[in-house]
Write a structure and sequence with these properties.
CATH superfamily of the domain at 59-242: MetI-like
Main location: membrane
Strand content: under 5%
Oligomer: single chain
Subcellular location: Cell membrane
Number of helices: 15
Biased composition (Low complexity): 376-391
InterPro entries: Bact_Polyamine_Transport, MetI-like, MetI-like_sf
Domain ABC transmembrane type-1: 66-263
CATH architecture of the domain at 59-242: Orthogonal Bundle
Distance between the termini: 150 Å
Order of helices and strands: HHHHHHHHHHHHHHH
Amino acid sequence: MNKQTGGGPLAVGYSLLFFAFLFGPLIIMVVTAFNSSSFPRITPWECFTTEWFGVLFGNSRLMGGLLNSVVIGFGVVCIAVPVGLAGALALSELGPRLRATLYTVLITPILVPGVVLGISTIVFWGAVGRGVGAGYDSLFFNGMFLTLAGQVTFVSAYAMLVFMARLQRFDPTLTEAALDLGATPGQAFRKILLPFLAPAIGSAAFLTLLASFENYNTTVFTIMSQSTFTTALASKVRLGTDPSLSALAVIIIGITLIGAMVNEAQTRRKDMLRSGRAAQSRVYGNPVLSVLVHPLSVFFLLIAIVGFLSWQGSQQDAGVCKQQILDGKRARQEELLEAQRERMKAQKAAEEATKPTVSTQPASPSAFGGAFNSLAPKAEPAPAESANPSPFGGAFNNLTPTTDD
């Protein structure tokens, strides 16, 4: 009889490495967001601070790009979701051959590189603007419009795929029965098909918003002189990063966790109400507990916790700690400079000790030790100058009369 186990040391080690790979960068970014160091790092730890969140919100370029990204994102959602829904409905009503052709046409923008889409969007709308005689200050040369048009061309395909997956589970006989009972096509769509597609509409809207928000390859060409949050963030990383980007990661992680918890509370509540076991549940059967676990209550409770933690963090004054760190760095720098001076003095003393002594002998001494120096010819003494030298420098000395023998 084979005994099955949950896994040995290899499986445990693999699991630890897997989760470290997934959550390690997130943990590092969360920690660096609260370190006072000007460069994102965990060690050496300096001081706990929340000032990098203020630096993030004080960056006008990032905040302006964030506003542009939100505007463009909602515009993309409002256009891409209806276009994707129309494409999915058209594919569901066509024959197999025509469906395959139309599907290929509609899915192609996803396969085209974003750089090509961005350049082609500029070229196309620029040609249209020049064709109608519009100036460079018109809509055809506006970065916001070009970015919206460029993103819709491929984001609509994402929405279409979501709707197609949902429509595969739809029973078309429900619509046919509504039409047989006297409903108009519009009424059948609004009261039967649209409620069935409601979850897909929410998913498609969220997916298209994220796809628009994080897009860079197409946006960097179409945004022109303006910027979105992604392009402003990329330029900031190119020019030099600081922990304010880690603060941004903390905010995104916090929003994601709050959304996940609220969604989990909503899912559990729906499951309990659908199964009819809510009254027998100790949580949902209790009026007080049922209010506390309601999705709205969970949402406001999490927001209150985040607000309290943010207020507590803002009360933390890191000035004293940062001054102590600065004084320690200066003292350490003085110690290093003093040690360097000592090393230079010791090196100079060692060089002087090993320097050879200067010899008093001639530059080219005799090989016989100076035994024959007495035989060397003696230099004649220089003639003494006249007691009364001529004021003309001796130019007429040859004219003086000589005495006869």
